[in-house]
Design goal:
By secondary structure, the protein is an alpha/beta fold. It folds into six domains: 37-135, Response regulator (Rossmann fold, 3-Layer(aba) Sandwich), CATH 3.40.50; 138-277 and 295-312, Response regulator (Rossmann fold), CATH 3.40.50; 320-413; 447-657, 2-Layer Sandwich (Heat Shock Protein 90), CATH 3.30.565; 676-802, Rossmann fold (3-Layer(aba) Sandwich); 808-846 and 865-921, Arc Repressor Mutant, subunit A. 55% of the residues lie in helices and 14% in strands. The chain is built from 29 helices and 24 strands. The strands form five sheets. A six-stranded parallel β-sheet has the order 2-1-3-4-5-11, with helices on both faces. Strands 7-6-8-9-10-12 form a six-stranded mixed β-sheet, sandwiched between helices. A five-stranded mixed β-sheet has the order 14-16-17-19-18, covered by helices on one side. The longest helix has 125 residues, at 311-435. The structure holds beta-D-fructofuranose. Residues 44, 47, 49-50, 124-125, 166, 172, 200, 226, 251-252, 275 line the site of beta-D-fructofuranose.
């Protein structure tokens, strides 16, 4: 068990490792991810050139899969573009790529971004500020110049030029115009006859051309700032039918459908100056900046003029490039697919690795717990074996105990059977003797005692045999349907004479007069005989016994309630126990009666319970089921119940109920005896017997309980107390302890008389300061001899104390409390021998007891009255003084407390037969 916390800690550790491992795997994937966000603000996105720029950017971006790309189209509106950039900055971007619609209006927002630390790449068009990180685009000035020089070098004769410019304020328009002017300057045959703004758009350009259509026939060369406006020029010239000789030069030279390359090869325009979009370059520069790699700030893209001489070559090259691009894209798709496969394989691998790790860990744990479990199982198995062997031992022991109990019970039962015949042989002649008046007159009391106790013995023997039958032989009842009210009423009636003798009010009541109940008349009677006999036996004189029968649903409840001595909770717990005898129970309560009663009620499938309160009374409640559903065929009999012989059967229960013989009290008329004894015994028969026997020798006081014993001891101060140990209320031992520790009664010898004969019990009796412990049955002569002997010893003790106080010796037999009393008493007398006013009251005050108690105590211990003792001590001292001192008779008279020498002489002579003078002369006499 001690390894458990350790085990849990280990498991926790391992799980932590697993979680960490999984987290690491997750991190590995996270690292590949780029978190860059690139914003691209386009001034206008609808035309082919800008779409090409965007495509290029995306192609480059595809090489950086983690990057986020935000794209906005300002649709030729500077205000819109400003708002879009602001929004991007709010969203949070790592780098801004911008192609400003117009230089001036866009400058502040670009500077703002730059100043915030966001790298800014200007593409194609410019702002009017140097605050940017990098520029990507062709040199528009150079481009314009190349166009001017191309026109100048390819047209001979006078050249009238029309310039169609881009959006006013946009940097390419400004720079291309400037470059173009510089390009044509060296050609004296060239002059510009008109300039219009086409705003980079074909319709706008056409509109402007219509406005100056009158001038157009003069024009033989056009420089349009882009190819779309150049194609518009061609259209207008065609429409006006004036354009056959006009050389049109555009800018952009885009490949693909609608592009400048196509226009040149289709002869819509004559030439186009290549203006690369720079989308790819812008993106690669952006990643170099973000990855903190070296980059160039000004990325000027190369340009050239494309016309009929090189357009096919350019187209071929473009087609090749285009194919290559497509291959790249295909490969990128493949790479993407591979990446996807790789990713999913990686995930599978991760899962496999984690599962493997978990499997290893769990396997380890399983192995660990397996070994732990084995250890625990081993120790449990050992414990189990131990418990099993203990259990087996207990079984063997309990079997032995059961066998021993059964053997004992067998023995008791067998002996009981043996007892029955002699008992019957005693009882029947006894019955004859009781019927014989002459014999009754002679030994009536004794015959009656023999009769009652023989019955009692028979009852005990019968109960023992019944108990054996039910409890061990499991003999079933033989129930028949009878009126249980009538049955119990008959039982109660049998006890009426006994109740009346003790003036006990015995009543029976029932809520229904006829209650049909299945019971065994030969068994159930014993239950109620026992309960009612006990209720009378343990009741107080003039007490009550109430039997109440109630029919309730499918059961009958019979209560037997008394107002007797009752029981305390401990006694109550054991009351139904086999052979239990409560301490207060008189010796005639064997204990088996209630146990047997319970067995009989149980055999009837009923129950018996008891409620009791000490000194208030007890209530036994018997509950029996009605009907016969609960009885097996074996438990029933077809013979009708017959309880005609109840009276005879009740005899053994009622025979030892209190007889009407009054307690023997000292006969006031007979001559008083010298010594008195107090007999304490709750068995009335024994009490009467002992009282009658001792009456011959002593004055006898009797009582049947401990409380009264103490009261009588104080009142009569008897010469001896003979007490039973088991008594109602206070036990004989407690009586002994109480009296022996009280100065007034400590001198009284006590004999404890009991049926409890073990050595331990005898020792405990002696511990209670009893003088002798005699076990029942006893021989009366032996008891009498002991009583006489104790009283004689007491007299010897008295003689010893009264003989001579000067010896100072005391017999060791004397109880210490008595010794102290005698010493105190003798000392007080000795000190006051010369005091002629000294009285008994003085001694009472000094010792602290009443005059009568002092009188009885002195009489008991010293065998004389107090005044006799004082006189005797005075004369003894006078004798001594006369013999040993040289005082005059008069002096001695006063020294021994006599006020008159003549009276002293008279008293002295009465005691010793000579006058003090004669004694002084001849002390030996
Ligand atoms: C496209 C375009 C191009 C031109 C460039 C100048 O919108 O008009 O034709 O070369 O912009 O910024």
């Amino acid at each position: 068990m001690g390894c458990k916390p350790n085990y849990i800690a280990r498991v926790k550790k391992i799980l932590l490792l697993v979680v960490t491992g999984c987290a690491l795997v997750a991190c590995k994937h996270d690292k590949i991810k780029s978190t860059y966000t690139i914003g691209f603000s386009q001034c206008v996105g609808s035309d082919l050139w800008r779409r090409t720029m965007l495509e290029e950017m995306k192609t480059e971006l595809s090489l950086h899969p983690g990057a986020t790309f935000i794209y906005t189209d300002a649709q030729n509106s500077s205000a819109k573009q400003i708002a879009q950039v602001r929004n991007m900055l709010r969203q949070g971007i790592d780098l801004l790529v911008i192609s400003p619609n117009e230089a001036q209006p866009l400058t502040p927002v670009v500077e703002e971004a730059y100043n915030k630390g966001i790298p800014v790449i200007i593409i194609d068009r410019k702002t009017s500020s140097p605050l940017y990180t990098a520029y990507v685009g062709a040199d528009n000035y150079e481009l314009g110049k190349m166009a001017g020089e191309y026109i100048g070098s390819t047209i001979k004769g006078p050249v009238s030029i029309l310039e169609v410019m881009g959006l006013p304020g946009s940097s390419p328009a400004i720079e291309r115009d400037r470059g173009f002017n510089d390009g044509i300057r060296k050609f004296s045959n060239i002059h510009v006859i008109s300039k219009v703004y086409g705003d980079w758009l074909k319709p706008n350009a056409e509109k402007q051309l219509y406005r100056i259509k009158d001038k157009l026939p003069l024009v033989n060369a056009v420089f349009a700032h882009n190819d779309v406006m150049a194609s518009g020029v061609r259209d207008i010239f065609s429409q006006l039918n004036i354009g056959h000789q006009v050389k049109i030069v555009g800018v952009d030279a885009l490949p693909g459908t609608g592009g400048g390359l196509g226009m040149v090869s289709d002869k819509i325009i004559d030439a186009s100056v290549l203006y690369p979009t720079g989308g790819k370059e812008a993106m690669s520069t952006a990643f170099r900046i973000l990855n903190k790699e070296p980059f160039s700030r000004e990325n000027i893209l190369q340009s050239l003029v494309i016309d009929s001489s090189n357009v096919q070559l350019m187209k071929m090259q473009w087609a090749r490039i285009n194919n290559q691009q497509k291959d790249i894209e295909k490969q990128q798709v493949l790479i993407k697919e591979q990446q996807g496969i790789y990713d999913s394989q990686q995930t599978v691998l991760d899962v496999i690795v984690i599962t493997l790790v978990l499997a290893i860990i769990l396997g380890g744990l399983a192995f660990y717990s397996l070994t732990e479990n084995r250890k625990i199982n081993k120790s449990l198995a050992a414990k189990n074996d131990e418990i099993l062997s203990q259990r087996n031992q207990l079984i063997v022991m309990s079997e032995k105990a059961e066998a021993a109990t059964e053997a004992k019970l067998n023995f008791f039962t067998n002996v009981s059977h043996e007892f029955r015949t002699p008992l019957t042989l005693i009882l029947s002649p006894l019955q004859d003797m009781m019927n014989n008046e002459k014999l009754l007159a002679l030994g009536g009391k004794d015959i009656r005692i023999i009769y009652q106790n023989s019955h009692r013995l028979l009852r005990l023997v019968n109960q023992l045999i019944d108990y054996r039958k039910i409890e061990y032989d499991k003999q079933s009842i033989k129930a028949s349907a009878n009126n249980i009210v009538a049955f119990i009423r008959d039982i109660v009636d049998n006890f009426r004479p006994h109740a009346q003798k003790q003036q006990i009010h015995l009543s029976i009541s029932s809520n229904v007069n006829d209650i049909k109940c299945w019971f065994d008349v030969n068994m159930l009677d014993k239950v109620f005989f026992n309960l009612i006999a006990n209720a009378i036996k343990f009741n107080n004189e003039k007490g009550k016994v109430r039997v109440n029968i109630v029919k309730r649903n499918d059961e009958v409840v019979i209560e037997v309630e008394d107002t007797g001595v009752g029981m305390n909770p401990e006694e109550l717990n054991l009351v139904f126990d086999q052979f239990y005898q409560a301490a207060h129970m008189p010796s005639n309560g064997s204990g088996i009666g209630l146990s047997l009663s319970r067995e009989i009620v149980n055999a009837h499938h009923g129950s018996v319970q008891v409620q009791s309160e000490k000194w208030k009374g007890s209530k036994f409640t018997v509950v029996l089921p009605l009907g016969d559903d609960h009885l097996s065929a074996d438990e029933k009999t077809t013979e009708p119940g017959n309880w005609a012989n109840l009276s005879k059967r009740s005899e053994i229960y009622s025979s030892d109920l209190k007889s009407s013989v009054a307690l023997t009290q000292p006969d006031l008329l007979s001559s008083p005896k010298e010594f008195s004894i107090l007999i304490v015994e709750d068995n009335q028969d024994l009490l009467h017997y002992l009282a009658a026997k001792f009456d011959e020798y002593f004055e006898v006081y009797t009582t049947d309980n401990g409380h009264d014993a103490i009261t009588q001891a104080y009142e009569h101060v008897p010469d001896l107390i003979l007490s039973d140990i088991v008594l109602p209320g206070i036990s004989g031992k407690a009586v002994s302890e109480k009296l022996k520790s009280d100065l007034r009664t400590s001198h009284i010898p006590i004999i404890l008389l009991t049926a409890q004969g073990s050595v331990e019990q005898q020792i405990s009796g002696i511990d209670a300061m009893a003088d002798i412990y005699i076990t029942k049955p006893f021989n009366f002569d032996y008891l009498l001899a002991n009583v006489k002997n104790l009283i004689k010893n007491r007299r010897i003790l008295k003689d010893h104390f009264t003989s001579d106080i000067s010896t100072g010796e005391r017999t060791s037999v004397a109880k210490s409390i008595d010794k102290k009393f005698i010493n105190d008493f003798a000392g007080i007398v000795e000190q006051n021998l010369s005091n002629d006013k000294f009285s008994v009251d003085d001694i009472c005050k000094l010792i602290g007891i009443s005059r009568i108690q002092l009188y009885r105590k002195v009489k008991a211990l010293l065998g004389c009255s107090i005044t006799d003792y004082i006189l005797s001590r005075r004369l003894k001292k006078a004798q001594y003084l006369l013999q040993n001192e040289n005082f005059s008779i008069a002096e001695i008279t006063y020294q021994v407390g006599f006020s008159n020498p003549n009276y002293f002489a008279t008293v002295f002579k009465a005691k010793y037969g000579c006058t003090p003078t004669e004694f002084k002369r001849n002390p030996v006499a």
